[in-house]
Amino acid sequence: GPNDPLFINLTTDDPHRAMMGISFGSNQLELGHPLTIFFNDRGVMVAAQSNAPRFAEHHTAIAAVLAKGGTIIVCPMCMKHYGIAKENLVDGAQVGKPELTGGKLFQDNTKTLTW
């Protein structure tokens, strides 16, 4: 439908692939689709402030998604695995928990994509 939620599963720290996922989601958000981007596996590296030199463009795009009402969730298990502390996440990112992540993923009519 015209307002179905979109849940993007972003698993990569490849700069091009990560920007594809963030940009696609941002465009759909502008079209009226509620957006959640779930950063997991190596995708957590994109959401870390300590990696800002490599992902400056991504951090700007993430801030724009948040400013437009999108949701950014980061996998806590992946954060632990890659040594990313909550304090190191980009501003506005939320650490995932079952209620938060599942609440977004299992909303009626949610579509999912993975990068």
Topology:
Elements lengths: L5 E5 L4 H16 L4 E5 L12 H16 L3 E4 L1 H7 L11 E2 L2 H8 L5 E4 L1
Parallel strand pairs: 1-2, 1-5, 2-3, 3-4
Helix pairs in contact: 1-2
What this model shows, in words?
With 115 residues, this protein is of the alpha/beta class. The protein contains 4 helices and 5 strands, in the order E-H-E-H-E-H-E-H-E. It has helices spanning 15-30, 52-67, 76-82, 98-105; strands spanning 6-10, 35-39, 71-74, 94-95, 111-114. Strand 2, helix 2 (52-67) and strand 3 (71-74) form a beta-alpha-beta unit. Helix 1 packs parallel to helix 2 (52-67).
* Count of individual helical segments: 4
What order do the helices and strands follow?
A: EHEHEHEHE
| CA-based gyration radius | 13 Å
Oligomer: single chain
| N- to C-terminal distance | 22 Å
Proportion of residues in helical segments: 40-55%
Name the strands of the widest sheet in spatial order. Answer: 4-3-2-1-5
Q: Give the amount of beta strand, in percent.
A: 15-25%
Structural class: alpha/beta
The main β sheet shows up as:
5 strands, parallel
- Number of beta-strand segments: 5
Quick one: overall form?
globular
Low-confidence stretches: none
Quick rundown:
The protein is of the alpha/beta class and 115 residues long. The protein has helices at 15-30, 52-67, 76-82, 98-105; strands spanning 6-10, 35-39, 71-74, 94-95, 111-114.
Which features does this protein show?
115 residues, alpha/beta, five-stranded parallel beta sheet, 5 strands
